[in-house]
Amino acid sequence: MSLKNINRDAALHNDTKHSSKLIFAPTRKDEQYLIGELERENLNNNPFLQFHEWFEQATNTPGLTMPEATTLSTAQMPSGRVSARMVYLKELDNKGFVIYSNWDTSRKAEDLRSNNHASLTFWWKELERQVRVEGITERLTQEQSQEYFNTRIRGSRIGAWASRQSAKLKSREELEDRVRAVEKKFEGEEKVPVPPFWGGIRIIPTYIEFWQGRDSRLHDRFTFTRESIHDDVWQVDRVSP
After folding, report:
1. Of the residues 81, 113, 180, 217, which is catalytic?
2. Under 8 Å CB-to-CB from 181, ≥6 apart: which residues?
3. Is the pLDDT of residue 92 over 70?
4. Mean pLDDT taken over the chain
5. How far, in Å, CA of 147 to CA of 157, rounded?
6. How many whole angstroms separate alpha carbon 198 and alpha carbon 218?
7. What is the pLDDT of residues 61-83, one digit of tens each?
8. How far is it, in rounded angstroms, from Cα 96 to Cα 168?
9. What CA–CA distance (Å, rounded) separates 221 from 106?
10. Is 107 one of the annotated active-site residues of the chain?
11. Which residues have CB under 8 Å from 152's CB, separation 6+?
12. What integer pLDDT is reported at residue 190 of this predicted model?
C-alpha cells in the first residue's frame, strides 16, 4: 500500500472515531423542486394512459436519458429479505408493465418463486417526477418473449443463453468459454430461439403512484389503487407528501 493511501486511510479512521457518519448530506438550497405541480384534473382516469403520457414527456425532455430505466424490487419469503436492481421497462400494455430477464438462476427469480409480488420505481429528475408501481407478476409465454428476443442484437441473444445470471464465476474466462460454446451451437442460425429460462414478466399493478416534486418537500402525490388485478375501477386519492 502506498504512503498516500496509508495517510488517507489513517485520516478517515481519525475522522470517524468520534462519529458514525461517513456521509452527511444536508439539503442544499438548490435542491428544491420548483418546476411543476399536479392536480386531480390533470390526471387521466386510466393510470396506464397517465403513465404513457408522462413517459412520452420524459422521452422528449432534453437531457433526460433512459426514461425506461426503473428499479425492480422483490422480496423473498418467508425471510422477507428485499432486493432491488435497475432494469429496463420494455413494454406497457393494458394489463401492466413488462421487463425481460433470466428467470432461473437470478436473485429476482428466486424471490418471485416464493413471492409473486414486485414493485417498480421510475425517477425522472429533469421533470422532478417519480412513479411507483406495485403488483402481481406473471410470466409471458415463450412466443411473446420470442417476439422481443428477436429484436436484440445477436450478441445479447447469445449472452442470454450463456449467462447463468447471479451464479458465481471462477473467472471472466469461464463466462467467455460459455459464450463461445453457445456461439458454436447456433453457428449459421440467424434466428436464435429464446431460452426456456429467459423471457418477460408482466407486473400487473394494484397500486400506481404519480409524484410531482414541489417546493419545501410539499410534493403532490396521487395514488391509483384497486382491490384486485381483475378490477377495472381504480380509486384515486391525493396523499400527504
Report:
1. 217
2. 162
3. yes
4. 92
5. 12
6. 42
7. 999 999 999 999 999 999 999 99
8. 33
9. 33
10. no
11. 160
12. 87
CATH code that applies to domain 40-151+196-238? 2.30.110.10
Separation of alpha carbons 208 and 131, rounded Å: 7
Looking at residue 138, its amino acid is: E
CA 238 to chain centre: 25
Closest CA to 220 of 37, 34, 58: 37
Report residue 229 as a C-alpha cell: 388485478
Q: What is the pTM of this model?
A: 0.87
Domain range summary for the chain, segments of one domain joined by +: 40-151+196-238
Closest to 179 in 3D by CA, of 199, 155, 195: 155
* CA neighbor of 178 nearest in space, from 168, 199, 164, 195: 164
- Per-residue CA distances from 187 to 151, 154, 156, 190, 191 (Å): 18, 11, 15, 8, 10
